[in-house]
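User: Before I run my own analysis I want an independent prediction to cross-check against. Here's the chain; please return only the structure tokens and, at the end, one sentence I can use as a sanity check.
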Amino acid sequence: MKKLIITLFTMALMVMLAHTSWAADKYKLRLASVSGPSHLHNVTMKEWAETVKKETDGRLDIRILDGAQLGGEREYIEGMRLGTIDMAQVSTGPISSFVPQFMVCALPYVFQDYEQIAATLEGPLGQKLFELLKQENIIGLTWFTNGFRSVFNSKRPINNPADLKGLKIRVMESPLMVGTLNSMGASATPMAYGELYTALQQGVMDGAENAPGNVLNDKFYEVAKYFSVTEHFAPPGVVAISNAAYSKLPEDLQTYLKESAKELGKMERAADKEAQVKFLEDLKAKGVDVNTVDKAAFTEAVKPVIEQFSEEIGPEVMDLLK
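Assistant: Structure tokens:
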């Protein structure tokens, strides 16, 4: 009987150890996103997550929690710092509240096209920003884009800064964005995004600024028939992982995650570039008057804003940008 008990105990121990080994080899990560399930960011990340699971034979399972299920972007950043949130896709705007140097990504006319965005963010500047982010216990994996932001309004086409005079243009609650739109000639007015449609409808606000896709998806074309391609902002987004979650992964999965995330970024940026062109055509089909602008005039107008915020960003980062 004693021999049988020892044998049974040994077998149970072997099963337990085998199970423990198997369980430890499976890693589940939750990736938070504020945008809805149909947004390009989430569509792309879900495709990536499926590829990751397949290529790692199920060892790495990334679940996308979209639609702000885990709160807002500020909560994501704080959560990653503390290790309570595994991963997130966040805008550079909220990150700059924790790492001021990220404001460089939101400077007006800092990016001219998608190719320049890729070259800049995959180069020394992007590497430096990720180094600074790592000091907050967050590891940057890749960069996303979300279109170039332009001015749209209900009054008239905007060709130069003088055309914006007297127009109340909604902006995010960001001193940099307020300063930029004021320099461009507008009366910049911070307002919650969720209140914008009604404000345009009632004439409380004359216009706003955003990328074509957002204007289309949120149906602002119904209350603002003029879209002027100023393309003054192109703030990128970041896909990141908390250092706590990253440290739990074995070395081979850490390497795989970083390398595959780079491909995710390339895939998203290419898809975004193509999509924004289509969105602009869709706006025209909805009856929106789309016009080009005198970009040289706007670029000149915002120079004081760049000088002002360059001091906050610091010479080390600004030199990498130049």
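Sanity check: Residues 251-285 form the longest helix (35 residues).
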